[in-house]
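Hi V.,

You were right to ask for the full record rather than a summary. Here it is.
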Amino acid sequence: MFLIATAGHIDHGKTALIRALTGTETDRLPQEKARGISIDLGFAYWTDVAGTVGFVDVPGHERFIPTMLSGAGAADFALLIVAADDGIMPQTLEHLDILDLLGIRQGVVALTKSDLANPERIALLDREITRTLAGTALAGSPILPVSAATGAGIDALARLLRQAATRPRPDREAGLGFRLAIDKAFTVPGAGTVVSGAIRDGAVAVGDELTLAPSGETVRVRGLQAAGRQVPRAVAGDRCAINLRGVALDQVRRGDWLLAPGHLCASHRLTVDLRISDAVANGIRHNSQMHLHIGTTDMPCRVLLHGRSTLPVGESGVAHLVTARPVCAVAGDAFVLRDAAARQTLAGGRVVDPLAPHRRRRDDDPEPLWAALRRPDPGAGFRDFLARPGTEVDAGAFAWRRNLAQPRIETLLSDAHVVRCGPGGRLALSVRTAEQAEAAMIAGLDSFHAAQPALAGRPVAAVLADLPFRLSREVRRTILQRLREQGRLAVRGNFVHRPDHAPPVPPGSEAQWQRILAAAAVLGRSSFGLRELADASRIPEATIAEQLFEHRGRMEIWRISATRHMLDSALREIAANASALSGQSKAGFDVARLRDRTGLGRNLLIEVLEFFDRTGIALRRGDRRRIVADLDAAFQRAALAEAGLPRKLFFERPRSRRKRPGGHASR
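Predicted structure:
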């Protein structure tokens, strides 16, 4: 459907012109008929041309600018109305300004009521309108005198509109998720809740499951109407009415969105390209309060200018909009800003990043991402962004920002020839960046072996950190795994080494260590000291202490206190039980609950929990604790810390007890 929106001052004949073109009366409300002015959006259709043409008749009164914006935002073509007897009026100029800020670049000016003006008046208005359009998106648009009363010029205008409807338009259906901005919600007896609006992207069919945003409710399409007819399917550009199952009328309002499942990306913060209107007297200052009009909604927002304190009249710049309610926008969506009192149109532009973070790291440069999101072709933008050295791309977030359906993003990833990382392969890395990261890891490991030939390997965390650029943990782990699969490095416990690295091993030390591990396994779930290990393994305490030092940080036997140790499997079993308790209550767990769950003694559990506190495996608040979400990462951090413990700690002995006066023992 080719969508044409009217614009112009009140009482300039917009509704009468649509009636003359289509035979449809778009003013249907009783108060509209009584007052003789349009209050709400009206709709009419041509169905006698290839591809339906839809008309959105908008109100012209200044009080109904939000309604006008709801109707004009999705239009392909503008029908600007100027009455020949009145000429250009205040709302003519504001509506023209809005069309310009929305970026509607196709249109025609209908000089209505031409039967009330002489030829000299018509010629004068033609020149004045041409000057007014200069410098706007509608500059050079044709100007046609028409009269709804006499029919003069109506056929010529109809031919021009039909011709415009046949021009090629961007394909907003292929590969994009369905989006519809709701401009009306009502009930139909026997059918239930019905919403209407223009489909911005994608397609919808009877039986489809959709998401109502920003609430997140799941609804199902019971029926579809387009141009007043029942249809099985509607596509981008169509204005349609959708009968919904699963939602009550009081749960829907103008400004809500219907989205394809999985495309709910509501955000309170948008990065935008902002242009100040030439029609305002002053520019915009940083942290100004305004009204944001986007889709079919309007809401209060704060405007935070990027890198400047003021944006002057007629200039453009990057800004961040912080909204009062969640906004379901995608990159490229048009918007308009009006003053806080909603009396004057001030600025407008396009969304650049609909998922702008609250704050960035100091070394993050957002410009490359913004440049990628501005590219008309998402594939080209994705490849440009990915080509930057050391850059990883979250394909899921990029798809949300550009509203790409899953098959489209899969094609995009395949065409870019990326290394996929993280859960589900959602993180993408260029092959060049992956190779640079691999080379950095190998070089760092070779340098470590050269400097510390006697050590069996380097801690995993140190290897992952040894990169020339910042990458996420998921990506760094994928790089490490690729090197393992290639046979270029090996991992044992928490240490990484080159496959051919063989540190000198004292005779019998490995056999001794295996005897110590076997003795620790016999001791089971409890903690133990050097004496208990010595008795169970028949190895001298001094030798055991030496072995524990050599194998520190390998996540086999842990030093949980100055004199007590514990087998890795036993320690992880306690951590898993504690983690399960953490998930049962937001307040966390206490020692008694963990004792009841594990059956272990209170003293042992206090010893273990204090170790968890020190190493960051547990977060303590009062007498309650919570276990961190990623246990594997927490244990690796603890192993890295243990690997750095000084030698003397592994040879500590319990302090001797001495008697206080009165016979009480003290440490």
